[in-house]
Specification:
The chain is α/β, with parallel strands linked by helices. The chain has helices at residues 13-26, 127-137, 150-161, 182-194, 241-245, 292-304, 336-341, 391-403, 408-412, 430-444, 448-451; strands spanning 2-9, 31-35, 70-73, 76-80, 85-88, 93-101, 105-107, 120-122, 142-146, 165-169, 198-200, 205-209, 216-219, 224-226, 229-232, 236-238, 269-271, 278-279, 286-287, 319-324, 327-333, 346-354, 366-374, 380-387. A hairpin with a 5-residue loop joins strand 23 (366-374) and strand 24 (380-387). It binds flavin-adenine dinucleotide. Flavin-adenine dinucleotide binds at residues 9-15, 34-37, 40, 43-44, 46-47, 75-76, 102-105, 123, 125, 151, 239, 242, 273-274, 290-293, 295.
């Protein structure tokens, strides 16, 4: 029986980062990465295969990222944590000293009659499924996207770029409502409309009609939407079959239960990424946040802790970023309404400026930043950036400020660099200005004598 010092089950972002970090922290060479796919795809850019990239082959995760770790393409079917072995569908059994589970997630299949029809596609992170979808789109006119979350919206935009007639059907009042504020959702939907994408919200598909293929979707309202192809993007569920089979504890959002060191309930077994339970940075309660960025952070933590406890996960801060037509959007941490639900007395500051200066420099775009602070401690809880392409990096900067526990005053005085082509003007840095706005609002609510 072969044995490895470290076996990682999963070749997605979590598994790959675990292999990289294990080598970095421990100079460990004896590592096996196990995955189903002969070639791994980059999951975040899957929607862009269909418009911008044009082919699945331009969206592969190269094995050189694994820095020499061995790869087994196979299906791990069981773990014996007493004997410290993993068994595979091909009959092989492999021993481990340490095991990291990075088994990821799979798409939710909604219980809609007709969802199993030939032209109804789920978004699997698998090269062959994704290639099938590329071929199926050829010559198709009407594409229906079920689910207006980040994945659904990104698919809709890319399909529209190819010239298809696209309709999104979304259960909630707005697309992206589960991650963004209402104001941001409205801006996103306006951009979708400008691109000619039809958006039907507050409704759901009750059935797909057609003989072999779905030809139209019937909505709960009775409305019928023509479709030649359907892409279903209604969320993901953690892959916990292996862990459950090995009697590992499962958390309340369905992920493998882990402690702050990413250790599971079984000795020498860690779990990271979409398959692992996550806990909010703010109240340490379980949250369902399945992002590659989160998977990579957890994988670094698990790898650091393989031999002894060195790195602690103090909680997940999500950053949801996307681009919809001409606008980029990012939201870090809590929305104002979520912060209020958690019991914070919220104060919001806002600022807007062009992304380049002076305005005569070409290519500048407006960027609006909104920051949410806790009034009593002054600490930053969340923030959004919307408009120019710098939104993504500003969102990441907000997450860093939240992680560092920075207050209104501290964000106002954040040292930032400026350049006419790269940032807002030194007088108008959107982040520091939004914090200054919040500070001003707090100050203006105090009686004059208290201000002195
Ligand atoms: C369309 C789309 C767009 C996205 N965009 C973004 C984005 O912009 N930003 C972002 O942060 N996140 C994004 N995400 C989310 C991100 O893709 C996931 O959070 C990320 O892939 C999780 O990584 P992971 O390693 O935990 O799991 P996965 O990527 O799901 O990988 C799981 C791995 O485990 C393997 N595996 C599972 N079970 C077994 C077994 N029994 N035996 C062997 N191998 C097994 C699989 O073969 C696979 O290699 C997007 C997701 C999708 C689908």
């Amino acid at each position: 029986m072969k044995k490895f010092k470290l076996v990682i089950i999963g070749g997605g972002p979590g598994g790959v980062q675990a292999a990289i970090s294990a080598q970095r922290y421990h100079e460990l060479k004896d590592i096996l990465v196990v995955r189903h796919e002969s070639k791994a795809v980059i999951p975040c850019s899957i929607p862009y295969i269909y418009g911008t990239l044009g082919s699945v082959d331009k969206n592969l995760m190269p094995d050189r990222l694994l820095c020499g770790a061995k790869v087994k393409v196979g299906d791990a079917v069981s773990i014996d944590h007493n004997k410290m072995t993993v068994s595979f569908a091909d009959g092989e059994r492999i021993g481990y000293d340490k095991l990291i589970l990075a088994t990821g997630s799979r798409p939710v299949v909604p219980p809609i009659p007709g969802v199993d029809k030939a032209n109804v596609y789920l978004v699997n992170k698998d090269i062959y499924c994704l290639r099938d979808l590329t071929q199926a789109m050829e010559g198709v006119r009407h594409i229906l996207v079920v689910g207006g979350g980040l994945t659904g919206v990104e698919f809709a935009v890319e399909c529209r770029k190819r010239g298809h007639q696209v309709t999104i059907v979304e259960l909630q009042k707005y697309c992206l409502q589960s991650v963004y504020t209402q104001e941001l959702c409205i801006r996103v939907e306006a951009s979708l409309a400008r691109q000619g994408i039809a958006v039907l919200t507050n409704t759901f598909v009750s059935s797909f009609e057609g003989s072999q293929k779905a030809e139209c979707a019937e909505l709960d309202s009775g409305q019928r939407v023509k479709c030649d192809l359907v892409i279903v993007c209604v969320g993901v569920l953690p892959n916990t079959g292996l862990a459950e089979h090995a009697s590992l504890d499962i958390g309340s959002t369905g992920g493998i239960k882990v402690d702050e060191f990413q250790k599971t309930s079984a000795p020498d077994i860690f779990a990271v990424g979409d398959c692992a339970e996550k806990y909010s940075f703010f109240d340490h309660q379980p949250i369902a946040a399945r992002l590659a960025s989160v998977a990579i952070r957890e994988a670094s933590i698990a790898a650091a802790n393989l031999c002894s406890a060195r790195s602690r996960n103090t909680g997940t801060i999500t950053v949801f970023s996307t681009i919809v037509g001409e606008i980029a959007v990012s939201l870090a941490g809590l929305t104002p309404s979520r912060a209020s639900e958690l019991g914070y007395d919220v104060i919001v500051g806002k600022a807007q400026a062009t992304s380049r200066y002076p305005e005569a420099i070409p290519g500048g775009k407006w960027l609006t930043v909104e920051l949410t602070f806790d009034r009593s401690s002054g600490r930053l809880l969340g923030g959004s950036a919307c408009g120019a392409m710098t939104a993504g990096e500003i969102g990441n900067l907000m997450a860093s400020c939240i992680f560092g526990g920075l207050t209104m005053e501290q964000v106002t005085l954040l040292p930032v660099g400026t350049h006419p082509w790269l940032t807002a003007s030194p007088f108008a840095c959107q982040l520091t200005s939004a914090a200054a706005d919040a500070l001003h609002r707090v100050g203006s609510q105090q009686p004059l004598n208290e201000k002195q």
